[in-house]
Write a structure and sequence with these properties.
Helices cover 25% and strands 31% of the residues. Strands 1, 2, 3, 5, 6, 7, 10 and 11 form an eight-stranded mixed sheet that branches. A five-stranded mixed sheet has the order 4-13-12-8-9, with no helix packed on it. The chain is an alpha+beta fold. It has a single domain, classed as Fumarylacetoacetase-like, C-terminal domain (Fumarylacetoacetate hydrolase, domain 2), CATH 3.90.850. It is globular. Strand 12 and strand 13 form a beta hairpin.
């Protein structure tokens, strides 16, 4: 049966309203291209209903996280919400939550299609220490396309204070992740497909396939420095990025 994009968007939208984010009737039926079209259609409906898209995420960029989920190319999702560093989540407001330590890049000029590292670097006007807050709303490893239709696990992002890009070598930025005061992981920017700038290059090229581009003023979560970690009630999460700054969040116990 031919793929009916609008009908698929409608089915995912109705399922989402029921709290069903991975509708089983779509298991093993979607290509990634179809899944992204559903994602963008759902986001358009959410924006029409009053939400605002503030940027994009690029995911599955670091080798440890690719190994964690058994998938070996980047993916994208849409960001419709952000919180400030120090935000404390209620224990019941997130669905099987987790986090990824990332650098968030803000651009002050549009980027589209075939762009190079120099163009991307020139477009970035701020770098934030950041945490992507994800939700495990279904089995990403088993149903990667359905997960992309469901906006690639995205829930929100927590942003620290921005700094100017200046002469920062993003591939050399080191990060230390602490959970409840204990070091859980370390990572560097070169874990993000060689350099976080490469995530923006990939995103601009990928979005062109769907008639979209990166708009001036948008933020881009460029990908995790480490594997993904769960957040449990009572957890305190802190990440320090050398030369950029720190970001923290917590969940009530």
């Amino acid at each position: 049966m031919p793929f009916d994009e609008q009908a698929a968007i409608g089915e995912f939208w109705d399922a989402r309203a029921r709290g069903e984010y991975f509708p089983p009737q779509w298991f093993d039926r979607l290509t990634l291209d179809q899944a992204y079209r559903i994602q963008l259609g759902i986001i358009a409906r959410r924006v029409a209903a009053g939400e605002r898209q503030v940027g994009w995420k690029v995911g599955l960029t670091a080798e440890p996280i690719q190994q964690q989920f058994g998938f070996h190319e980047p993916v994208f999702g849409c960001i419709l919400d952000s919180r400030s560093s120090g935000h404390v989540f209620r224990r019941d407001e997130l669905i099987r939550p987790g986090f990824e330590p990332e650098l968030c890049l803000r651009v002050d000029q549009a980027l589209s299609g075939e762009v190079d590292a120099a163009t991307v670097r020139g477009a970035i006007d701020a770098v934030y220490p950041a945490l992507e807050i994800i939700e495990t709303r279904g089995d990403l490893s088993a149903q990667i396309a359905v997960a992309m239709a469901d906006n690639a696990q995205q829930k929100t992002v927590v942003l620290g204070n921005p700094v100017a890009l200046g002469g920062l070598a993003l591939d050399e930025v080191a990060a230390t992740v602490r959970i409840n005061g204990n070091t859980a992981a370390t990572g560097r920017g070169d874990a993000v497909i060689g350099n976080p700038l490469n995530s923006v290059i990939w995103l601009a090229r990928k979005l062109q396939q769907f008639g979209r581009d990166i708009q001036a003023g948008e933020i881009i979560m460029s990908g995790s420095f480490t594997r993904q970690f769960p957040i449990e009630p009572g957890d305190r999460v802190e990440v320090d990025f050398v030369g950029v700054g720190g970001v923290r969040t917590a969940m009530l116990g």
